[in-house]
Every structure is written in C-alpha cells, then in structure tokens.
Amino acid sequence: MDWSTPVTVKLEKSMFSGGPAPPAPKGRWRGLGPFDPNRRIEPYFGLYDADLEPKPGRRIPIWFGTFGERALELTGRLADGWIPSLGQAPPERVTTMRDRVLSAATNAGRDPGDVTCAYNLEIRVDERFEPRPDVVSGNVDRVVEQLLGFVDLGFTAMNFQPVGQDRHEQFECLAEDVIPAVRAAR
User: Fold this and answer.
1) Confidence at residue 62, expressed as pLDDT on a 0 to 100 scale
2) Which of these, 80, 81, 78, lies nearest to 42 by C-alpha position?
3) Cα(163)–Cα(45) distance, rounded to whole angstroms?
4) How many helices (H) and strands (E) does the chain have?
5) Chain segment 127-146, per-residue pLDDT in tens
6) Phi/psi zone of residue 123: left (φ > 0), alpha (ψ -120 to 50 degrees), beta?
7) Domains and CATH numbers, the chain
8) How far apart are CA 176 and CA 173, in angstroms?
9) Which distant-in-sequence residues (6+ apart) come within 8 Å of 11 by Cβ?
10) Whole-angstrom Cα distance, residue 98 to residue 89?
C-alpha cells in the first residue's frame, strides 16, 4: 500500500444544510469498480483521489457522533451506529437525541435495533478527582453506578477515554474492577 498519497474527501455541501450524506466509503469498499475522479457519488458531495486498499475482509460499520437535529436524523437513516460524547450529549438530553436517531431509522425502513448506540465517555476512577459534568468519575462503585445508568438509557456499548496521567493504571482498573462489575449487574 502506498501511504505517500493521502485520501481526500472534499465536501462540497455540508450535511447540516440538508444534503444527503456521502455513502462513498462503503461503496468504494464494496468494490464498485475503478475510481473515476469526475464521477460524483452524490448530488452534493464529491470524492476525489480515493483508492481504498486493501479492501477489508468484512463490512466496516460506519458510526456517526452527531448532535444536531438534522445530523441525528441522518444518523438514523444511514449509520450503523451512533456515538455521542458525554460533554455534548449529557444524560438529560441524550435520551431525546437517541429517540430521534432510532425514529429516523424506523422512518427509513430500518430496524432501529440495527443502530448501535454507544456512549463516548471520558472517565476517571478516583474518589479524589474533582467532579466535572463531562467526565464519569468517582470510586469504582460510583463509576459502575453511572455506567449502569447509561445502560438504562439504552446504550449497549461505551468507549472509555481515561483522564489523567496514569492512563495505564486507569485501563487496568476499568478492565479488572469496573467492567466486570457492570457486566455482573446486567
């Protein structure tokens, strides 16, 4: 593979202005034939100089981390998953946003259960950590309690981004203490 040539996606119209999303990467991976730089994939988007090699051996899911109304609807219509971040989609708003994504999936004739809902979380297992609304934090029991609350909101997956200098220790604590406790509770 030649890594010296970047793949460039040129968006000619923002998805937030009502145009359709570019399903070009999925199409390229499905092997739609040689790339024609003059061929437009969608009426609003062009994909130029993209040759995605090697082709994956399986279908690659596309997840969107969207927040605006139109983008949420777009996610429900086209994406395989929705992964909002806690800082932009706090628990008091995320249920309404998730409902919008799943409703859009239904309206597009899709099974809403096919859309993975994952929560992107900054996390810190440390009872001395100064609480912040955009970080899941506290001792093990408190972090487990917060994560179970997200499961109750309908999230079936979570992406953890440990906060602090001791990331290795945080990963170990998550793997050895937090994740097993969340799984045991469900």
Assistant:
1) 92
2) 78
3) 37
4) 6, 7
5) 999 999 999 999 999 999 99
6) beta
7) 1-60 (no CATH), 63-185 (3.20.20.30)
8) 5
9) 22, 45
10) 10
Answer whether residue 125 shows pLDDT above 80.
yes
At which residue do the structure tokens 């202005």 appear? 17
What is the Cα Rg of the chain in Å?
19
Structure-model confidence comparison of residues 74 and 57, the more confident one:
74
Which residue type is seen at 53?
E
**Exposure string for 1-12, b = 16+ CB within 10 A, e = fewer:** eeeeeeeeeeee
CB atoms within 10 A of CB 36: 7
Report pLDDT for 9.
Answer: 44
Print burial letters for 145-179: b (CB count within 10 Å at least 16), e (below 16): ebbeebeeeebeebebebbeeeeeebeebbeebbe
Q: Which sign, positive or negative, has the C-alpha torsion 152, 154, 156, 18?
A: negative
ω into residue 54 within 30 of 0, thus cis? yes
Q: What is the pLDDT of residues 100-110, one digit of tens each?
A: 999 999 999 99
For residues 35 and 50, the answer to whether their CB atoms sit within 8 Å is: yes
pTM greater than 0.90: no
Residues β-bridged to residue 50: none
Packing angle of the helix pair 91-107, 69-78 (nearest 10 deg): 50
Determine contact, residues 94/121, Cβ cutoff 8 Å. Answer: no
